[in-house]
Structures are given as structure tokens and as C-alpha cells.
Amino acid sequence: MKLARATFTPGVLGGPGFFGGMFELPGGYLKPVLVSSCDGVGTKLKIASVMGKHDTVGMDIVNHSVDDILTCGAAPLFFLDYIAMGKLDSALVADIVKGLSTACQEVGCALIGGETAEMPGLYHGKDYDLAGFIVGIVEKDRIVNGLTIKPGDAVLGLPSSGLHTNGYSLARRVLGETPEALSKVYPGFDRSIGEVLLAPHVSYFKTLQPVMSDVKGLAHITGGGFTDNIPRSLPEGVSVRINTGTWDVPPVFELIQSLGQVAPEEMFRVFNMGIGMTVFVDPSHVSTMLAAMPQARVIGEVTAEAGRKVEIV
Amino acid sequence: MKLARATFTPGVLGGPGFFGGMFELPGGYLKPVLVSSCDGVGTKLKIASVMGKHDTVGMDIVNHSVDDILTCGAAPLFFLDYIAMGKLDSALVADIVKGLSTACQEVGCALIGGETAEMPGLYHGKDYDLAGFIVGIVEKDRIVNGLTIKPGDAVLGLPSSGLHTNGYSLARRVLGETPEALSKVYPGFDRSIGEVLLAPHVSYFKTLQPVMSDVKGLAHITGGGFTDNIPRSLPEGVSVRINTGTWDVPPVFELIQSLGQVAPEEMFRVFNMGIGMTVFVDPSHVSTMLAAMPQARVIGEVTAEAGRKVEIV
């Protein structure tokens, strides 16, 4: 069984008979490049199911997708979702779509369509899956690709709200995932660990869009943490040194590290450790960047060492 | 766990650090409109799992998506897939991606990215889900929208290869879904019913693209059969009469109808009954259309009855 998504935003043409839509390309681009991404929320969905709260995962998948294409300098155009469950639960779908809508509106992205698939026998009980597809646009000569990053450039970090959408397998193993485990309020926290774990993925579009012309490269810290995501943004012949202690690691990471006795290097390979996006800039632009983004911190620098390594000191 | 899709086609720019890609918009469009769709394969996946054959569902999701946006007159640009399973099975993923690639290449669509999500606890045993997302393009004044359809217009039908991607819940209930049930070769068939059920969704792009300027409207016969899909393509004030007997209903539908004692109207509401796409054309264009598409049949006509009804006689 399939349901068309009811939410359409202005700018979207008509409503065809399938679960997508038509979107007129905005004018003013000389060589428009479309940037697209597909992703899922992963096992953060399990936390949402136990907590019975489903709007934040809707925000997660949109914000994650927006941040992914932002690493190329792209502005979001439209988004489609795929929701699959065993038996249609309209209230649950409405909650998810509420989160999708909120996050799309925040960045001016059309929620152009989506599909809700009812697949008994594949999804059990209250289980469901949620994936998202985004398309954005960037002028060809404004693509952010990291090619001009050179030794001496600064690495800025923008704060995350928590785990975002990665590391939930390890987090669930360490913290548990029963209603009792997730309702626990640990010392130093003002809410349950379940609520802490559901904090929505931060969207960096509005923060970075105004300063994008001074950005040389971006790394969205998702699955694989600092270790896997930063090298993909670097050109040959350089590496990056990250100076821990230049930002406050949120308590949830310290809790997982301590309870699970996780090695520090493993923490940086699995989690964002409080930094959701790293921004590579020329040293001469650091002060204007920090003035425009007061939440940013200089967390490291680009070094002349070959091999696109990430050294965490 | 996430895996980047390895297959990129020429025309795609670079490979960013996320599971999507960059696609430079083709030139020559005055007012380019992007047409997108998101869909899943549904419980046809269950048949694929039992049969241990996974390339055809890859073709299914691409062809289904291509046909969806084709109903607006759009040509495919690029496709992304979402594959989710409990534990990564590389051979299974390779089979699916082989099908995706084959179908994309067939219509010149870039397989630009995708995600493989490993979600233990959500997907059990060999279960997996597969969804797809397509973006195509059409010049704004060439959008096919059915608005000029009028009484007396002809309804052409293009043959399907079988169930395509809809009606599998009913088919599985009637035919069974054990290995024994699916390996059965029914009288009059030259292969097992499992193989018959896995026949890939037909892509109509190459057939319809050359004659698109004479097409007034299109209905892709998917979930909801004739009954739900045709009305969405019609303007106010008309209806459609379909003349059964003008085409050969494939034996698989007769088998399901007979074994399941399914009422004829239910068959037309659930299945495509051998017609995967209906094409609305002016009567003066019928002979040239049939010459260009020898596999097409005139299966009905547009009537002056209000209500966008579908009468099957």
C-alpha cells in the first residue's frame, strides 16, 4: 500500500499521479550542477520507537541530507522521503512528516513527495524504516571541493547537538535500549538519556551559506567520525592535526566512553565528539569567520604531511 | 554501516564524501523542470528472496521510477538507491546493483549514488528493503499533463511483462510463497511461477520518447490498477471506456483470478492485467502511433461522461 505525501510547498508545480513532483529550476545559474544524496536514519530509529517520539527522526534525515550536499556548497531544492512499516500507523507517519516539514521549511527546501510503503512480513511490530533523498543546486564554478586546501589552513569546528545520526549501535550497546534504560537521568544531565540521544541533527545550511565564498572545504562528521570523514575532504599531500581541548566535548560522549570503556581513538572513529561539521579556511579569514559564526571554534590546522591523515592530539 | 555505491557513469562530476553525487544539468533547456519520484519494490522482494534472485528487483525499481516520471514527459537524468538489510550480504547487494546498473544504462540514466544500510534488529534473516529515487527533466512547455484530453481520444495500451511491481500481496496469498509453491510450473507455462512473478517491470522510455510530442496524457498502471491510475491522468469532464478483449491478458493474471476466485473488477483494481502504460492520443494520430509502436493496441476511448470514471466493458 502506498500513500502520497500531502505536504507540498509553494514553487512546486502541480501534483502528478505518482509519489514525487515537478520542480521548476530557479533561474540565475550559468552552469547549474545538481547535487543529490540518499541516506537513512539508521538505528536511531530504535531509540525513537522505544521513546514513542517520531518527529525528531524526521528532522534528522532532512538535516543530515542538507548537510551532506552542503559539503559541495549546494543549496537544497527539494526532498523526498521513503517510510516503510509493517502495518500503516497514520499517527506515527504524521509525526515523522511533521519533523520532515519543519526541517524542510527551516532551509526553504520543498518537501516534494515521498512514499509510505506498507509491507507486512518484512517489518515487525512497531518497527519502521525511514530514508531520505535530497536534491540541491550549486553554480559549477562555486563547487566546494577542498582542492585549494594547503598546509597552514585553519580547521574550524561547528558544534553538534549530540550523536546526530551516527554511532547508535555502540551507544545502544553501552547505554541499553529498554524503556527503563532510556528513561534514566544520569548525574550532570537535566533530561533522560533517551531524550539526549534523540536530539535532532543540526542543520548547518543557514550558518554556512552566508560565508560559503570563503570556505575551501567542508567535512560533515557522520559515520566514521573524524577519522573517515575528514580525509575525504582533503587534497593529496596534506594532513590535519586536531587539537582536543579546543572545544567542549558534550557529556553524552564522556558518558559513553566511560561506561563502555571505549578507547579515545575509537570514540573519534565512531562519533562526532561534539563537532558536526569541520570547515577549512585560509588563516586570513579566521577572524571574519568566527565573527560570522560565534559558535565555531578553531579546532586544528592543515599540515604538510602527506597521506591525508587525521592526527588527534 | 554505510557503503558508497561504486557504479558511476560518465557525465557525473567527481565523487564527494557522501552517498550521492554531482550532476551537471544538460544544456538546451529554456525552462527546465525537474521531475522526481521515490518508490519501493514492495513485497515482490519476498519472491526474490525465496527464489534467491536479486538482479531483477534492481531493474524493477529503476524501470518503475523511469515510467513514473515519464508520465510527465520527463527524460531520466540520475538515480539513487536505498538498500537496507540486517547484516551486509555483499553478493546480494552486488546482484541488486547489477540490475540497477543494467536498467540505468538502458535509458542513459546515471546511477549517481545510493546507500546500503546495515540495521541489525530491524531486518531479520535474509530480509531486505529496496527503494529508489529518480530525477528527470522536461522543458516546461512540453510537460505532459493530460489537460487537452477530450471525448473521442483514443486510449492505447502498451504491454506489461507481468505484475510489474504491484499486486504481490494478493498474488502471494493465492499462489503461495514457499520454495515449493514458487517452483511449480503450471499447465500452459514454460517456466516456474516464481520466475513468471519475477519478470522485470518494463521500461517504456525508449518506446515513448520518439512519439512524445503526439502524446496528450499517460497513465502508468501501478498499484490501484486501471481503476486508480487512469483517473489521475484525466481532466475534469471526461471518463474512459476500456474494451477488454482488445488485448491478450497474460496467463499469470488468469491463473491468479481462477485459483483465487477473484472478481474481475478486483483484478482491474489490483493488477495491470497486461497493460503497463496507457497512452492518450488524438484519433488522427493513432495510425502513426501504432506504426511507431507495433506492440501497442487501441484498448479504449475517452467518453464525454463527467466524473473521470473508468468503465471496463
Question: Summary?
Answer:
The structure is a homodimer of 313-residue chains. With 313 residues, the first copy, chain A, is α+β, with helices and mostly antiparallel strands.
Structural shape of chain A: globular
Largest interface: A-B, 68 and 67 residues
Q: Kindly, what is the distance between the CA atoms of the first and last residues of chain A, rounded to a whole number of angstroms?
A: 53 Å
CATH class of the largest domain in chain A: Alpha Beta
- H and E order of chain A: EEEEHHEHEEEHHHHEHEHHEHEE
Q: Give the overall pLDDT of chain A as a whole number.
A: 92
Helix percent of chain A reads 25-40%
Please name the CATH architecture of the largest domain in chain A: Alpha-Beta Complex
Main sheet specs of chain A: 6 strands, mixed
> How many domain regions of chain A?
2
Portion in beta strands of chain A = 25-35%
EC number (chains A, B): 6.3.3.1
Organism (chains A, B): Candidatus Dehalogenimonas loeffleri
Family (chains A, B): Belongs to the AIR synthase family.
Subcellular location (chains A, B): Cytoplasm
Word description of this protein:
Two copies of one chain form a homodimer. The first copy, chain A, has a six-stranded mixed sheet with strand order 9-11-8-12-10-13. Chain A has a five-stranded mixed sheet with strand order 1-6-5-7-4, covered by helices on one side. Chain A has 313 residues and is α+β, with helices and mostly antiparallel strands. The longest helix of chain A has 17 residues, at 90-106. Chain A contains eleven helices and 13 strands. Chain A folds into two domains: 2-142, 60s Ribosomal Protein L30, Chain: A (2-Layer Sandwich), CATH 3.30.1330; 154-312, Phosphoribosyl-aminoimidazole Synthetase, Chain A, domain 2 (Alpha-Beta Complex), CATH 3.90.650.10. Chains A and B meet through β3, β4, β5, β6 and β7 of A and β3, β4, β5, β6 and β7 of B. β4 (32-40) of chain A pairs antiparallel with β3 of chain B.
